[in-house]
Design brief:
Elements lengths: L2 E2 L20 E9 L1 H11 L9 H6 L9 H16 L4 E9 L12 E13 L3 E10 L2 E12 L2
Parallel strand pairs: 1-2
Antiparallel strand pairs: 2-4, 3-6, 4-5, 5-6
């Protein structure tokens, strides 16, 4: 199989429809998650649920520790796609199912979300279907993660 994109998941230029092939693997990219990034996301999203920033409360409701917002996790997968596709591409469809939380044990350790992908198929209209995988601490945190991107 061929790899689409550089090792760090970024590209020097723009991906074009003609240069991608079904089966091509998109290099994994790791995104850090800290308590600070979750607090910032609380402010950006308006979701100040204490399970996303207060360890005592998170544990009192049965969680192992503070957890990342599901939409924060989904956003990292979306970021992966748009970074790979480039500035002239457009996301036509994007969907995921949440399968496990991203646990953020503390700000010293934090957590990571690793996102990778595969080109599943090419469609008419310069559309490319991507299957995505997102993992944190060895667990698959998103399932049925799929994006359809229109490339130039």
């Amino acid at each position: 199989m061929t790899t689409a994109g550089q090792q760090d998941g970024t590209r020097a230029g723009q991906v074009t429809f003609g240069e991608v092939e079904p089966g091509a693997e998109l290099a994994a990219v790791t995104y850090p998650v800290t308590r600070l990034s979750l607090v910032k996301y609380c402010g950006a999203s308006g979701d100040f649920n204490v399970i996303h920033w207060n360890e005592r409360i998170a544990r009192s409701v049965g969680l192992p520790d503070v957890i990342a917002h599901g939409m924060f996790t989904m956003a990292q997968a979306g970021r992966f796609v748009t970074d790979w596709a480039g500035p002239r591409a457009a996301m036509a469809e994007f969907g995921v199912r949440f399968s496990a939380p991203v646990v953020v044990p503390d700000d010293d350790v934090g957590a990571t979300i690793e996102v990778s992908g595969t080109v599943e198929e090419k469609l008419d209209g310069n559309l490319v279907v991507l299957a995505l995988t997102a993992r944190s601490a060895g667990a698959k945190v998103l399932t049925r993660a799929r994006a359809v991107v229109r490339l130039p």
